[in-house]
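Backbone Fold Data
Goal — fold tokens
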Amino acid sequence: MDTLAAYSQLVEQHQLPTMRRGGYSTHTETLSEPDAVWAALAAQQPTQGWLQFQSRQRPFHDGLPQPEADWGQLLAAEAVTGEGHSLSLAGDGAGGFRLTRYTHSASGDWLCDELSQFAHDPRTGSLRYRRYWRLDDAQGYVQERACFIGFD
């Protein structure tokens, strides 16, 4: 019996998320200037997501908001575009940032599922993620990546 068939037998009994085959491709920009970070994120035209500044954490639901001066520097973000690309902004460990765009593929050698997690502020709605699982010879399926795909 293959992995997906075995898993599907457990889904209903244990209230697990639906699993299917899938994969993703990435495009990463490395950025060193704070102004370039915001410009690169804005150029992706995110529709929903969250932003972590030095002095403010903020979700957004209808496009990227204009930052206010008292929020400080943008430190991290996760977002989704109107085309369904997941965006992740994180520090690179050397004072710069990496903005990565993940493009989902319905075919691939990995497995993927979707889940919701509670947001810090319940008024925001739940955060939805697509997780990607790869087969490791020693450990079985291990989570490779979780991509933000919007709010519930």
